[in-house]
Structures are given as C-alpha cells and as structure tokens.
Amino acid sequence: TSPKGEELAEYLDASPARVRFLERTGKAGGDGVFDRAGLLERLALHQATEQERLFQKAGMKTQRQTWEESFWYRLAYHCVRELEGAAGRGTFHPAVDETDGRFTFTFHRPGGEPMVRFAVPRDRVRATLQLLAAEYPEQEDLALRPIPLMSIFRVTQETELDLEVRPVIRTLQENGEERFWERSDFEKFRYGNLIWIRELGVLAELEREGKERKFKAPVSMKLKRSQVPGYLDEHREALGEGLLVLDEPLRDRRIFKEVDRVEISALDLETALERSWYWLAVEYGFGSETVSLARILEARREGLPYLETANGWIDLNAPVFRALDGLLERLGAPAAGGDRFRLGASDVLRLQAETGRPVRVAATGEVAALLGRLLELRPAGAAGEIRGLATPLRPYQRLGLDWLLFLWENRLAGLLCDDMGLGKTLQTIALMAVLLEREAVREPFFVACPTSVLSHWRNQIERHAPGALRPIVHHGAGRRLPAKLQAGNVLLTSYGVLRRDAEALSAIPFSVAVFDEVQNLKNRGTQAHEAADHLVADVKLGLTGTPIENSLGDLKTLFDLVLPNYLGTDAVFEERWGRLEGRDGEDFDLAGLRRVISPFILRRLKSAVLDELPEKIEDLRTCQLSDDQIRLYRDALAGQGADLARQIETAADGRLPYIHIFALLNLLKRICDHPALALKDLAQADNYTSGKWDLYREILEESLGSGQKVVVFSEFLGMIELMERHLEGLGVCYARLTGASVRRGEIVDRFNQDPDCRVFLSTLKTGGAGIDLVAGSVVIHYDRWWNAAREDQATDRVHRMGQRRAVQVFKLVTEGTLEEKIAAIIERKRRVMASVVQEDDPHLAKIFTRDELLEMLRGE
C-alpha cells in the first residue's frame, strides 16, 4: 500500500515465488545468502559510479538509485527473474474495478496464471495503455481506441453499426446529455480525458477543455451484442424513442424481469405420473411469447446474462430465476429428446411459489385433476364423519384435517404450527383415525415428544379415538419394542429414547411420523435430530407453536427434517434470505419466503378462530433497582462486564465468549430478581431489598384478594423457593412443579380442582408445555426469558380452551437494566419474524448481535 493507505499492488501467485517476492521487496527477512533484499542493496552499491558514491556520502541519491530502490523496480525485477527461461512471455490485461473505479492491470505468466495485479494512477491510464499496446500489438484488450463521448450522443439513423441486432442512439432528450454529466459516479470512472461507460464496457474520450466541439455523427460504431439489453435496461427512460433496430423503433422491446404466467403440461397419464413423480413440460410466459424451462436452464448454465426473444430480452439474473437455482440443480437435465422434467409434488409447488404466478395445467383427465388439486392445496375429498373419533372437531380443526389429508395424499410433509391450545394433538389423531377408517395405511403410526408429554398423548388418544387407535408407550428402563406393529398402533416414545433406540426404530416402516414440540430437534448436529431424520415414514409431520426458535435458520432445520432438500443447501438459504440479526425485514425477501413455505405450514391464532375464548390482557409492569441491587449491578458491569465488552469489541474473527457472556447476563438477571438470589444467600433474603420482589408481592396480594388463582413462572429455582416461603408465611396453599417433580398430573389436577390451592409455582421450562392450568386467571412472569415465544407458550397453559375467565398476564421488568433492553430487542425482532410464520423465539447465543450484547454489557 501507499503511505496514504491506497492499495498499489496485489500479489496473486501462490507458488513458492511468493516468499522470494517478499524477500526481494524487503517485506520478509532472509539470512545469509538468502537475504535477497540485502543482496540487491550490496549489488547496487558495487555498481555505483564515482559520482553516485559522492552523492551517497552527502546523504543524497541519484534518480537511478532512487528508482532501483523503489517498490515498483523490485516488483519488475522479481517478475523478470521468475520468468527467466520460461517459454514465451507474460501478458498484461486491463480492468476497471466497478466498486471504486480503480484502473488495474493483471500480469499473467506465459501459462496464463495471474501473478500480480497493480493499480495505475488515473492520469497515467492512457500512457500505460499506449505503452503496453506498443509492446503487445496482437493483444486486443490493450488497443486504445476510445469512442468520442459526444459521438454516442450524436449517433443517427444513418450510422452503420457492426451488429446483427443494431440498436443505435439517435438522439437523447433535450437534457439527456446534461444528466449524463451530472451522474454521481462520473468522476469515479474518469481517467484523465477518458471516461469508462460501464453499461457498454467501453472507454470514451472527453473533449479537451477550451476546444470547440468537433464531434459529428459517426459513420460506424461497434457495440457488442451482449451489451445491448443491459444498456437498454439502464437507460430506457432517458433514451425515449431514440432506439432503433434496423429502421424500426426499439422502444417496445422489453427487458423481462418477471414471469407473466406459468404453464405445465403432460402428454398422457402414463408418462405424466410415476408413483409420486410427474414428467412435465414447463413453459414460462413473457408477453405474447412462451419460453421453455429447458431453454432458460440451458442459457443459465452457459452463463448468459440475457436470453433474447422476439419481443425483447429475458433477464436471467432477475430474482425470479436466481431463486430457481436450487430447484434446477435437483431437476438436472430434461428427459432425453425433449423438454420434460421429473418433478415431485413439492417441486411443482415450488415453481408456483417462486414465480408468484398461478400455474396453469395444460392437460386433461386424471392428471389434470391430480395437478389441479395439488396446486390448490386441497385433498381429493373432505373427511366427512369420522366414526373412530369420539370428539367432534371445530370448523378450523376440520380445515386443519383437510390440510393434513392433502399432505398425505401427495406424500408431502408439513409443520402444524397452530397457536397453543387450538388442538394440534386432536387434529393429528383425527388424521390417523381417517386414514385407518379409509384403509389407506398398512403401517403403524409413530409419535415422538418430550418425556413430560408422553402421558398426555396416551390420554388424548384414549379419550378422542377409543377403540380405533391403540397407543403403545415405548419408554422406561425395561422397554421392548413389540414383535409386530400393525395399522392402528400408535408407537409413543420420547426424544431421549428415540436417540438411544435409533437403529431399532429406523428399521420399522411407519405410515405417519409425528414430532410433537418439534422445536426440540432444531439443532441439526444432535443425535436426536439424526435419529428423527433416519426414521422411515410416508409422511413426516412436525407439531409446534413456535416454529422459529432462534432465527430463520431454525425454520430451515425443521424443514430439512420433514421435507429434505426443499429449501436447498444452508449456503443457498443463507445467501438468499440471510440471517435475521440486525435486519429490519426489508433487506431480504420475506414475501418470497412466505410463498415458498406456505403450502407446508399451517398456522392459526386463537384470536382468529376462537370467538368464545376469554380476553387476554397483557401488562408490562416495571420497577426500579433497590440500593442493594444498584450496588451489585454496577459492580458486575464494572468488573466482568467491562472485560467482556473489550473482548467483544476486539474479536476480529467473530468468535465471541458466549459462555462467559451468558454467565454474566444470568448474574445480572438474578440481581434484578433478588440480591439474595445473586449472592446465593436465600436464608438471609429478608435482610435485602428488591424492587421486583416488592412489586410481585403487591400483584400477588391484589390477585388473591380478588378471589383469583395465580400461576407464577420463574427461570430460577431459587426464586421458586423464596415464593414458597412467602406463601407459607401468608398461609396460602400452593402447588409446585419443577423438573424434579414426579406425578406431574396429580400436581396439575390439584391446582385445577382444589379450590383451596390458590397459587401454581413453576419454572418456565417445566410448566411451559404439555399441561392445562385453566383454573388460573392471573399469570405472572417474574423474570423475562430469553425466549419470548416460550413465555407465550407458558401463558397459553392458562389462556386456552376450557378457560372461562379473562386472563391477566403480568410481565415484570426492571427499569434501566438488561431486562428492559432484552424486552426491546425481542420486540423489535418479533415484528420481523411475525412476517414469516407469526412467531419469534430468540436465544442468547444466536439472536443477539455484537452491538446488542455490547449495549447490554455497557449498562448505558
């Protein structure tokens, strides 16, 4: 680089010559005979003239000495030495950097390998080109034949153009030339009296200042055919009617960036349908023309930027075509001798989603009916009455069942993401009952879920489908798989057992495999995820109220589990939709993502489908730190916080000390909850004050005084212990549920059925899923969880079907602390995530950006 920090040259050669280059330029030291820089200095001193020796004694150097000591001389010397004995000589190739306008030359070895790239000062570009053109007269890209800039604005209809398609610029609008001179990048691409016209890829010559304009309409001009559509696309508005092809106006020719329509066709049923695959021809419509997918695929594989048609050019780099890259990789080449592709049902839906246009089926008979139902996302027939189901379905649940039947009939997969309490379990049981009643299955069903929900599934099957479905719980130390499983059997197991018995379970073919609380499988590298992936099933379904746990990457992981390869590779997904952190939702194609995933996700909110559900009122209650808490909070930030902030700021490789950050943030949360919790001194809790503890006791007293039952969630077992002690002091009967609790069902039943049991205490992880707490009508989230959606899940244990009272939800936040900042960050990200599947669920090590972590640790 130069003293000003500008890059002068970039050494590209990766061979051992790289080390010799560094030694010759003095950038790396050698020793003995290998001290090449020192050797060059001694050689220069030996060859110095008497006059140069006198100059050197006086502390001066001649122009030759200065030049030989320069970087450029050493670079040229290195190249000459390295090419000694090589067959032929190297070549120079010019280029313009589109980002900063630098004019560079790349020197290539005789074999074509690039050796070094160097930038040329703007005012030396013409001279350098002239010098190299004289040395390499056979090299076309060095020839300096700039087009006079004003000639481009003076092309007339009589100008002869060396193009098969001859677009010429007859004239610009009155101020078109002025607009060109006012371009913001004019100076960036100016090199003395030359200007780079990036749209055409040519150097134009500027008039000399003070000289009268002498340019006239040229007799002929050369433009590359491939440059025409790009130039038209960039300047159509400015060019107006000045474009001609031969003698006809070009203004009606279009640059197609969108598809107007999509049409799929099949010759007959036998060639169209092969099990769950279709052999189909795909045509894209642009204006009055149609172009086959096979032709577009061939053009993209050839690297063409545009595909010419009679009415214009198709922009092959437009988003609608770039988005198909992953799909086209899977399709491969069309059938031999034709343009038909082997498309699965998901591929057909992906075509429709990517173009954003309804797909028209150009076929008749059974294949048209099959494809029509597929594209409309509807099954062959509604479920009707289900004799094996003892519980009537609500209207929205019947729609959910129809969607599940659609997935089954097309051997697809999906994520049922209904809001908590809307009966995802019941809808899944109904699907099993329908398939069994229609004799559509021969293999058993499979359900994997958290251990805490196993009994819930068994009870729900016995309650809703008695006699039709037969639940078999595969769990416990003495578990053994049945010798034979039949249609109608529902094998229930936990994720832990799924992981341990993966080999045995993967050997059993299932009709439908269901993963309840499927967000437990969001980490692709875990054994549980691999075990679920290896299960053999006609259809895989994921049930969850929170399909997005940490980021959009979690959603992709779940899709890869139930519908492998549909969203492409991680790299393709990351490039297109990016990471959510730091985005505001407008930087990436949310609408496109929703179209792509919508056929395979069903999401309904309670507020939209349950008119009879009581109101839920959410109240964010804030408090302030007590003096005890202020002292502890400041000490933590000044000590560990300051050190971690420095590590985050200086982590150049992007590796952040998440373990230590998590530990500090948890300490800060404990301080916000209660000083005794942070100091691990619960026995002396009464000797400390806490703003949040005082607020909690006020809300609890008010709620109990109004005759309501209260459900309290906290992240920390220590807080549960303090709450127990407080309730015992008040003489209030309560129920307690934590990870160590046994007989969960009895604990929950006691709270729901015993009128004297007034309070339910639970950790968020333990009580946030798989239970009903409809006896409660007040929910208190004592501390904010990293995961906002998990809070919502826990609240929905109370606000669900069967609830008869309005539910009041209190979320306690300490002002001026990380709790307040976390709440703001989560809410900001929630707005973006809601645009995809209406849920958000951040987690510390993934969802917070570097700046957000610094914001929390600095305590500003």
Any overview of this molecule?
With 860 residues, the chain is of the alpha/beta class. The protein has 36 helices and 35 strands. The strands form eight sheets. The chain has a seven-stranded parallel β-sheet with strand order 25-26-24-27-28-23-29, with helices on both faces. Helix 14 packs antiparallel against helix 24 and helix 16 crosses helix 17 (424-437). The model is unreliable at 155-177, 211-221, 237-250, 580-587 and 838-847 (pLDDT under 50).
**Shape field:** globular
Number of helices: 36
Uncertain ranges: 155-177, 211-221, 237-250, 580-587, 838-847
What is the typical, i.e. mean, pLDDT?
78
- Helix percentage: 40-55%
Structure summary, number of beta strands: 35
Q: What Rg do the Cα atoms give?
A: 36 Å
Provide a quick synopsis of the model.
With 860 residues, this protein is α/β, with parallel strands linked by helices.
Question: Which structural traits does this protein have?
Answer:
six-stranded mixed beta sheet; 36 helices; globular; 860 residues; alpha/beta
Task: Chart the SSEs and their pairings.
Layout: E1 9-11, H1 17-24, H2 36-46, H3 50-57, H4 63-68, H5 71-82, E2 91-96, E3 103-108, E4 114-120, H6 125-135, E5 147-148, H7 149-152, E6 160-161, E7 167-169, H8 176-181, E8 190-191, E9 194-197, E10 202-205, E11 220-221, H9 227-239, E12 243-245, E13 248-249, E14 254-256, E15 261-265, H10 269-272, E16 273-274, E17 277-286, E18 289-292, H11 293-301, E19 306-309, E20 312-315, H12 319-322, H13 325-331, E21 340-344, H14 345-355, E22 359-362, H15 365-376, H16 395-409, E23 414-416, H17 424-437, E24 445-449, H18 454-464, E25 470-473, E26 489-494, H19 495-500, H20 502-506, E27 509-516, H21 527-534, E28 536-543, H22 552-562, H23 570-577, H24 590-597, E29 601-602, H25 606-609, E30 616-623, H26 627-650, H27 658-673, H28 675-678, H29 691-705, E31 710-714, H30 717-730, E32 733-737, H31 744-753, E33 757-763, H32 764-767, E34 778-781, H33 788-795, E35 807-814, H34 818-837, H35 844-847, H36 850-858
Parallel strand pairs: 5-10, 6-11, 14-20, 15-22, 23-28, 23-29, 24-26, 24-27, 25-26, 27-28, 30-35, 31-33, 31-34, 32-33, 34-35
Antiparallel strand pairs: 1-4, 2-3, 3-4, 7-12, 8-9, 9-10, 12-13, 15-17, 16-17, 17-18, 17-21, 19-20
